[in-house]
């Protein structure tokens, strides 16, 4: 039968955020460069690929600050005497090293968030850049629509921390190439947090080490990582660990990091995760990150498609069709955003459009054709037809979502939708 495909640009649809603004919109040093993600590739980043990212963080909840070292293994097919990576100018840079050797302080500068590095010798092939820094990262005003750190507290007063940076990008907390070409092909994360807390992140947990009042959690992945999907989730988590038997014969680790007081609804959510895994594998093929995990972390913001560690803050609510639409929508992005990633934000419909279409398809999977049609009718009522779906020019994420420049208009709790195709 014919399937109308509805396209949405809001990753969190028809819902209000459950966080409280904690920082004025006029943040210090709010450069246009830092606050945008994707767009035209700067000349200094052209011909650069990220083979591996080794990210080390220490998180200080009391001062809402971090220190870190981002070591990027870069590959260039042409000699480069000047390169750049992206890092918010709010941070103080302690050092920049090339292949393990610190550069002179006058060899780099970071006035607007593009960290420009002059190399003492031309580099081609594979080489390493390590950036050490510290400071107070940008705090999200209204995560996940406004990016940054979320510093929150659990009901019993313990620290509950998350990152969500889709719009503004990875450079809000680590030195990266803040565009799809900058996807690290493999990733290590070493996250140092107060010893009473757990740090959940992308990939496979490789163990922790005690360092007095702090504990360091090591996460690793051999799969390419969506840059804005790299995330920190820190809380006094409890963990549910199960194994999903895939319809393709392999086994998939299922991990849910939840607040301890939510143990009962957490068990029900994990049961729902199994059903969603079956649905997506039947419709789109094998889960792309089975070598890592199907992971969820309970967060103080509504949610985001963080690769293999989806952020979840929907408070275990079901929609009228009997499933957790937020969990299902973010999980859809493992196929559309994390596996299939647009080359530029101008094709954001590949992420959000197909992700949004999964809700009516899942309603049909659970309840039949009438539920599918009703869900589509509800979605169609918000169609605005404001702008062309694709502009055919490089765009930053913010331009796509802007009412002046792009189709992805977001008004608080309402998303605008676009019907771009009908097909079988």
How many angstroms separate the termini?
6 Å
Find the count of extended strands (DSSP E, 2+ residues): 22
Shape: globular
Percentage beta strand:
35-45%
- Please, how many helices? 6
Class inferred from helices and paired strands: alpha+beta
Poorly predicted sequence stretches spanning 5 or more consecutive residues: 4-28, 409-424
Order of SSEs: EHEEEEEEEEEEEEEEEHEEEHHHHEEE
Helix content: 10-25%
What does the radius of gyration come to? Answer: 21 Å
Largest sheet: 9 strands, mixed
User: Mean pLDDT across all residues, rounded?
Assistant: 89
Structural write-up:
It contains 6 helices and 22 strands. It has 424 residues and is of the alpha+beta class. A hairpin with a 2-residue loop joins strand 4 and strand 5 (101-102). Helix content is 17%, strand content 36%. Helix 3 (325-332) packs across helix 4 (349-367). The termini are close together. The chain has helices spanning 32-35, 263-284, 325-332, 349-367, 369-380, 397-401; strands spanning 3-8, 48-60, 65-86, 92-98, 101-102, 108-109, 114-135, 148-153, 159-164, 187-194, 198-200, 204-211, 214-221, 233-235, 238-245, 251-258, 294-298, 303-304, 310-312, 410-411, 414-415, 417-423. Strands 2, 3, 4, 5, 6, 7, 10, 12 and 13 form a 9-stranded mixed beta sheet that branches. A 5-stranded mixed beta sheet has the order 15-16-17-19-18, covered by helices on one side. The protein has a 4-stranded antiparallel beta sheet with strand order 8-9-14-11, with no helix packed on it. The model is unreliable at 4-28 and 409-424 (pLDDT under 50).
């Amino acid at each position: 039968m014919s399937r109308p495909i509805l396209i949405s640009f809001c990753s969190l649809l028809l819902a209000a955020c459950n966080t409280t603004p904690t920082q004025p919109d006029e943040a210090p040093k709010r450069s246009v460069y830092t606050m945008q993600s994707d767009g035209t590739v700067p000349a200094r980043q052209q011909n650069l690929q990220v083979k591996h990212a080794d990210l080390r963080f220490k998180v200080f909840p009391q001062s809402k600050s971090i220190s870190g070292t981002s070591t990027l293994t870069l590959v260039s097919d042409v000699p480069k005497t000047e390169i750049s990576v992206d890092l918010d100018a709010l941070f103080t840079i302690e050092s920049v090293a090339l292949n393990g050797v610190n550069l002179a302080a006058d060899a780099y500068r970071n006035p607007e968030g593009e960290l420009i590095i002059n190399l003492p010798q031309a580099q081609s092939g594979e080489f390493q850049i390590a950036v050490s820094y510290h400071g107070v990262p940008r705090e999200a005003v209204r995560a996940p629509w406004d990016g940054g750190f979320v510093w929150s507290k659990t009901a019993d007063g313990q620290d509950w921390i998350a990152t969500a940076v889709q719009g503004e990008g990875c450079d809000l907390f680590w030195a990266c190439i803040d565009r799809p070409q900058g996807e690290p092909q493999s990733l290590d994360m070493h996250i140092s947090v107060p010893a009473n807390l757990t740090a959940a992140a992308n990939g496979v947990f490789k163990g922790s080490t005690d360092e007095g009042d702090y504990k360091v959690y090591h996460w690793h992945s051999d799969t390419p990582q969506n840059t804005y999907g790299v995330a920190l989730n820190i809380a006094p988590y409890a963990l549910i660990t199960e194994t999903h038997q895939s319809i393709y014969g392999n086994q998939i680790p299922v991990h849910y990091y939840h607040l301890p007081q939510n143990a009962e609804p957490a068990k029900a959510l994990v049961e729902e995760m199994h059903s969603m895994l079956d649905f997506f594998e039947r419709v789109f093929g094998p889960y792309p990150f089975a070598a890592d995990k199907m992971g969820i972390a309970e967060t103080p913001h509504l949610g985001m498609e963080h690769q293999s560690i989806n952020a979840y803050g929907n408070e275990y609510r079901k929609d009228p069709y009997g499933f957790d639409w937020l969990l299902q929508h973010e999980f859809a992005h493992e196929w559309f955003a994390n596996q299939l990633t647009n080359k530029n934000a101008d094709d954001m419909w590949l992420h959000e459009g197909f992700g949004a279409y999964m809700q009516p398809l899942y309603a049909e999977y659970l309840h039949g054709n009438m539920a599918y049609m009703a869900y589509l009718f509800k979605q169609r009522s918000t169609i605005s037809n404001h702008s062309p779906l694709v502009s055919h020019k490089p765009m930053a994420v913010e331009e796509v979502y802007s009412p002046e420049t792009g189709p992805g208009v977001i008004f608080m709790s309402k998303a605008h939708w676009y019907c771009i195709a009908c097909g079988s």
